[in-house]
TrEMBL record:
Originating species: Micromonospora thermarum
CDD domains: NAD_bind_m-THF_DH_Cyclohyd (cd01080)
Pathway(s) of this molecule: One-carbon metabolism; tetrahydrofolate interconversion
UniProt KW keywords: Amino-acid biosynthesis, Histidine biosynthesis, Hydrolase, Methionine biosynthesis, Multifunctional enzyme, NADP, One-carbon metabolism, Oxidoreductase, Purine biosynthesis
One Pfam match: THF_DHG_CYH_C
Domain Tetrahydrofolate dehydrogenase/cyclohydrolase NAD(P)-binding: 144-287
Domain Tetrahydrofolate dehydrogenase/cyclohydrolase catalytic residue range list: 12-125
Known EC number: 1.5.1.5, 3.5.4.9
Protein name: Bifunctional protein FolD
NADP keyword on record: yes
Residues binding NADP(+), per UniProt: 170-172, 240
């Protein structure tokens, strides 16, 4: 492992998430006082230890925030039809406001097809095609959690985004593509000049080196190195790969020697992603009573 001298200001996600979750807890209390019992259903398929752990953490957090959280655990042998049946039931159940499917799901199942069975307004991941369409059109709806968390993280830490050059490395559906749409929207915490680079742009460092804000969204460990970063730039590490429980970020830690500000290796974009999930859930509950 390389050793580095951190000179960049750190941009932790924890305090951002705490602030969002405090707002969520307040909104849950207000809804309960108005006779609504916010409910976030969770679905786990299979017996992967890491996924089971993540869903337990989210259920505990849901309970702490005051959500009811009905849970369905399907066996690893579950069919696509089994998964669709669970999602159709939750979609039709008026007492359930949000539904979270822990992914990855077993390889024989198609997550994207399953998502289409879910009522778009209950999609707390913000990944349903209808919600992606709403994002593209600037209409209200659940936002994809990691991109929304990154916008919140930059705003919380006072990083100006409007009018600045943002370069995103990666055009994936979870992160790069929706983040580009979000940060290009006309809003004080967005309104940026956004460029997206990917494997089709062989000389992508030419773009990242001019970025005032660089977001790594590739899922390729260590792909972003100091020579790809403009001195003083803000670097956001979104992409990660897991080897078991070991987290391998896109951004090499030596980038901290060049960047002006950088998300920490652990505790950056992760906590804000989870906070946005709960924000989507409480907003879904609010919409259910005030459509
Ligand atoms: N921290 C969190 O909480 C969180 C949450 C969600 C996702 N993530 C992470 O975010 C990352 C992106 O996820 P995703 O689903 O949006 O993306 P994805 O579908 O995995 O796509 C990765 C993107 O990176 C590009 N890419 C890969 N290798 C590259 C290379 N060598 N040079 C240039 N571009 C390259 C790909 O280009 P092509 O399109 O040309 O193939 C693609 O656009 C993943 O690592 C994921 O784990 C993190």
């Amino acid at each position: 492992m390389s050793r580095s001298t951190t000179t960049a200001r750190l941009l932790p996600g924890g305090p951002v998430a705490d602030q969002i979750l405090a707002e969520v807890a307040g909104d849950v209390r207000a809804l309960r006082a108005a006779g609504v019992n916010p409910s976030l259903a969770t679905v786990l398929v299979g017996d992967d230890d890491a996924s089971a752990g993540y869903i337990r953490i989210k259920q505990r957090q849901a309970a702490d925030l005051g959500f009811a959280s009905p849970h369905v655990h399907l066996p690893a042998s579950a069919s696509q039809a089994d998964l669709h049946a669970v999602l159709a039931d939750f979609s039709a159940d008026g007492s359930v406001h949000g539904v979270l499917v822990q992914h990855p799901i077993p390889a024989h199942l198609d997550y994207d097809r399953a998502l289409e069975v879910l009522a778009p307004d209950k999609d707390v991941d913000g990944m349903h095609p209808v919600n992606m369409g709403r994002l593209a059109l600037g209409l209200p709806g659940p936002l994809p959690c990691t991109p929304a968390g990154i916008e919140a993280l930059l705003a919380y830490h006072g990083v100006p985004v409007a009018g600045r050059e943002v370069v995103i490395l990666g055009r994936g559906a979870t992160l790069g593509r929706p983040l580009a749409m979000l940060l290009a929207q006309k809003r004080p915490t967005a309104n940026a000049a956004v460029t997206v680079v990917h494997t089709g742009v062989a000389d992508w460092p030419r773009y990242t080196r001019r970025a005032e804000i660089l977001v790594a969204a590739a899922g390729v460990p260590g792909i972003v190195r100091p020579e790809h970063v403009r001195p003083g730039a803000v670097v956001v590490g979104g992409g990660v790969r897991y080897e078991g429980r070991r987290l391998l970020p896109d951004v090499d830690e030596s980038c901290a020697e060049v960047a002006g500000a950088i998300t920490p290796r652990v505790g950056g974009v992760g906590p804000t992603t989870v906070a946005m999930l709960f924000r989507n859930a409480v907003r879904a509950a609010g919409r259910a009573v005030r459509p």
